[in-house]
Every structure is written in structure tokens, then in C-alpha cells.
């Protein structure tokens, strides 16, 4: 059976982009067709300015939401990254294989470094080495496939390069992974700034739909989405990014096709109304389940404990093999 690994970073409340771009497929496809692991990657949340209590809260919330969207701990492994030491152990070895040039070429690093500096802060070294830790997450489990949104493609490519290089230098140790992305909604855009990704840690709040937004908040955000001055509904990501984004969201929520849906609507208003309702319907069961799970924190904790035990047992042999291959003396 193929191995699948993916993760979500607790740097903000989870968004519709996270759901449509990644989580939905983890639930519908990956947990059924693969030996799959899904992790709240909390170590990654420490790479930018952070508040310890908030990271802890968001980690718990992200784990609860992973279960609320439908991941079934009987079918897959759900755990918190920092509970499994193998990630950090392997990350250091991979830092000895990756280069600083590779790190500095990463788009997300460049964007986030600019943002951190603009806020008057300094750039943490861990932001630069972020993709190496991500490679460790993936490679520790012998992962074949990494289901992610489009924005993570470059990071997965780096994990591939590092795996190939390590194997060439030190002997075959790692499976070389590949990214998989959804056909539609691989990049959900901010409703207020449809040329930028809908990101959970962004500042443009009204343009972001959060998984736990109340139905009326969702409706308001979608109805106020920026479109353009045209009137006809056409699917064109370059020329009409706002409308294309709504068509993609609607298609992803209803199982339709954005191109075909564009022919159904004669006004932006009708498109927005149907998109808002489709999103509300998709979020309704998730929010209901989230509420139930919040009432039973012991259950979530138990899932995370079992998940970490299982993940540790899966990662350890590969990470130990990497330690030996790279030249470290086994502990007596
Ligand atoms: P993160 O936490 O930013 O996002 C989690 C997943 O959601 C996808 N996603 C989107 N997809 C479509 N449209 C959007 N607007 C959108 N926003 C987010 C992301 O592509 C991702 O699949 N570096 C990763 C976390 C990570 C990871 C890993 C992922 C750490 N280690 C190992 C896979 C494997 C990240 O920041 O995702």
C-alpha cells in the first residue's frame, strides 16, 4: 500500500483554502487508498513571530478540525509533529545535505522574510531551514505521495531533490516522494485580493473564509468578494481572477466544473449567492462535529497519543537507517 503524508501548520485558524486545497482530499481519497499520516506541524509554527499560548491553542484546534472534517483515526494516523522526535532528528541530517542556495531560492521564504522585516522583526534562521524540516516530515515515513495545495509544490520538489542526493551519496535510504494536488481549487484566492492566496496567517481578514466562521459571516464575506467591472460570468483566471475564484470555490463545493458553471450564471450576484450557500453547506457538518469533539477533549487527546505512538514506530527505522548511512557511530 502506498504511504501518504501531509501536514497543516497551526499559525492561524484553518481556512476554506486549507479545506478545498488539501484536507478534503485527505478525507475523501487518501485515508481510504493509502497508509496515510496527517500531522499538525507545530514546529513549523515557530518559524515566525509567535505567541506560545496561541500556538498551543491553534494546535489543539487544528487537531480537532482534522477529525471534524472526517479523518478517521481507525483508517489513518493523526498526530502532532513535536510529539515525534524523529522529525527534528532527521531535519538536522538533511541540513547536511541541502544547501543554503536552495533555501534562499524558495518562494515562500522570500515572501515571508519580506513580511517579517516589514513588520520590523528579524528573520528566524528556522524560516530559512523550514523546507528541510518539511523534507524530514515527508522522508521519515517513506512517503510516496504528498497531497498539498499548489503553494507547497516547490517544497515537495526540494524534498525530492534532497532524497535523491542523500541516496546517491550515502546509499538508498529514502523513498523519493511526489506531490499530488486537487484538479480544482488547488489555489483558493483571497476574496478581497483575488490575485493572492487565501492564507490563514494573512492580514486581509474579510477575504478569508475560516472553517469555523458562522454561516452569516460566510455569506457576508462571499457576497462582498471583489470581482471586477465586467458583467458576464466567464472563467478566466488571468483576466477575471475574482470571478474565477468564486467559480472554483463553487465547483469544488458542489462537485462541478468551473468552466461549465460559468455558463449557468448571468450575474455576479447570483453566482455569489449560490457560492455562499454551497460553502455554508460544506462547512455545516464540519462545525457540528467540531462542537461535539470540543465537548470531548479526552477523545482528541487519546487520538493524538495513539497517533504519535504509531508515527514514532513508523519513522524510527528510516531515521535510524539515515543516521547509520551518513556516518554516525551507533550508540553503544
Ligand atoms: P499550510 O498549513 O499553509 O496549509 C495546509 C495545506 O493547505 C493547502 N492550502 C491551500 N490550498 C489551496 N488554496 C489555498 N489558499 C491554500 N492555503 C493552504 C496547502 O497547500 C497545504 O497542503 N508547509 C506546509 C505544512 C507542512 C507540510 C509538511 C505539508 C509541513 N510539513 C509535510 C505536507 C508535508 C504548510 O505550511 O501548509
Automatic annotation (TrEMBL):
Pfam families: tRNA-synt_1b. Homodimer. This is Tryptophan--tRNA ligase. It is an enzyme of class 6 (ligase). A motif ('KMSKS' region) lies at residues 197-201. It catalyses: tRNA(Trp) + L-tryptophan + ATP = L-tryptophyl-tRNA(Trp) + AMP + diphosphate + H(+). ATP binds at residues 9-11, 17-18, 149-151, 188, 197-201. GO terms for molecular function: ligase activity. Keywords: Aminoacyl-tRNA synthetase, ATP-binding, Cytoplasm, Ligase, Nucleotide-binding, Protein biosynthesis. The lineage of its organism: Bacteria, Bacillati, Actinomycetota, Actinomycetes, Kitasatosporales. The keyword Ribonucleoprotein does not apply. Its main location: cytoplasm. The keyword Nucleotide-binding applies. Belongs to the class-I aminoacyl-tRNA synthetase family. L-tryptophan binds at residue 137. It comes from Streptomyces pharetrae CZA14. A motif ('HIGH' region) lies at residues 10-18. InterPro entries: aa-tRNA-synth_I_CS, aa-tRNA-synth_Ic, Rossmann-like_a/b/a_fold, Trp-tRNA-ligase, Trp-tRNA-ligase_bac-type, Trp-tRNA_synthetase. It is found in: Cytoplasm. Its EC number is 6.1.1.2.
Amino acid at each position: 500500500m502506498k504511504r501518504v503524508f501531509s501536514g497543516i501548520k497551526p499559525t492561524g485558524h484553518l481556512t476554506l483554502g486549507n479545506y478545498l486545497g488539501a484536507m478534503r482530499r485527505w478525507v475523501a481519497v487518501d485515508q481510504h487508498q493509502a497508509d496515510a499520516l496527517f500531522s499538525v506541524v507545530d514546529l513549523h509554527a515557530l518559524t515566525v513571530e509567535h505567541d506560545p499560548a496561541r500556538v498551543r491553542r491553534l494546535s489543539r484546534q487544528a487537531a480537532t478540525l482534522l477529525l471534524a472534517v472526517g479523518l478517521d483515526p481507525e483508517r489513518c494516523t493523526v498526530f502532532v509533529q513535536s510529539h515525534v522526535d524523529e522529525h527534528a532528528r532527521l531535519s538536522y541530517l538533511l541540513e547536511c545535505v541541502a544547501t543554503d542556495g536552495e533555501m534562499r531560492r524558495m518562494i515562500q521564504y522570500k515572501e515571508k522574510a519580506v513580511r517579517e522585516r516589514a513588520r520590523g522583526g528579524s528573520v528566524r534562521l528556522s524560516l530559512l531551514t523550514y523546507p528541510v524540516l518539511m523534507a524530514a516530515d515527508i522522508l521519515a515515513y517513506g512517503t510516496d505521495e504528498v497531497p498539498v495545495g499548489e503553494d507547497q509544490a516547490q517544497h515537495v520538489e526540494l524534498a525530492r531533490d534532497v532524497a535523491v542526493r542523500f541516496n546517491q551519496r550515502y546509499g538508498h535510504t529514502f523513498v523519493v516522494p511526489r506531490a499530488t494536488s486537487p484538479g480544482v481549487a488547488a489555489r483558493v484566492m483571497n476574496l478581497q485580493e483575488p490575485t493572492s492566496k487565501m492564507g490563514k496567517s494573512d492580514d486581509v481578514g474579510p477575504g478569508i473564509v475560516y472553517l469555523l466562521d458562522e454561516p452569516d459571516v460566510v455569506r457576508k464575506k462571499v457576497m462582498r468578494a471583489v470581482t471586477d467591472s465586467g458583467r458576464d460570468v466567464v472563467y478566466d483566471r488571468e483576466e477575471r481572477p475574482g470571478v474565477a475564484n468564486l467559480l472554483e470555490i463553487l465547483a469544488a463545493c458542489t462537485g462541478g466544473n468551473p468552466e461549465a458553471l460559468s455558463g449557468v450564471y448571468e450575474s455576479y450576484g447570483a453566482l455569489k449567492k449560490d457560492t455562499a450557500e454551497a460553502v455554508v453547506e460544506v462547512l455545516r457538518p464540519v462545525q457540528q462535529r467540531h462542537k461535539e469533539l470540543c465537548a470531548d477533549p479526552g477523545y482528541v487527546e487519546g487520538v493524538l497519543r495513539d497517533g504519535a505512538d504509531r508515527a514514532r514506530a513508523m519513522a524510527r527505522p528510516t531515521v535510524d537507517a539515515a543516521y547509520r548511512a551518513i556516518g554516525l557511530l551507533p550508540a553503544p
